[in-house]
Amino acid sequence: MDQEHILARIKTMVDDERRLRDALATGQIDNTTEHAQLGQLERELDQCWDLLRQRRAKTEFGENPDEAHVRPSSQVEGYLN
């Protein structure tokens, strides 16, 4: 996935997150559903941001950005700032 596709995917997920929050606010979904779906979205967003950072770092250091890969959410979620 190239940088443009990753950024488009991130935008879509952010839009999905807003829709979920709106659906909760208007009573279309319950708290449990919103929490579960948001959790999944947040994990996928973290993976996309990580992939984007990997690609940018590889480019910066003269490596092939296509060698970057999606890491498991368990690994990405364990990162500290």
Automatic annotation (TrEMBL):
It comes from the Bacteria. Residues 72-81 have a biased composition (Polar residues). Residues 60-70 have a biased composition (Basic and acidic residues). Residues 60-81 are annotated as: Disordered. InterPro entries: Uncharacterised_Rv0898c. This is DUF2630 family protein.
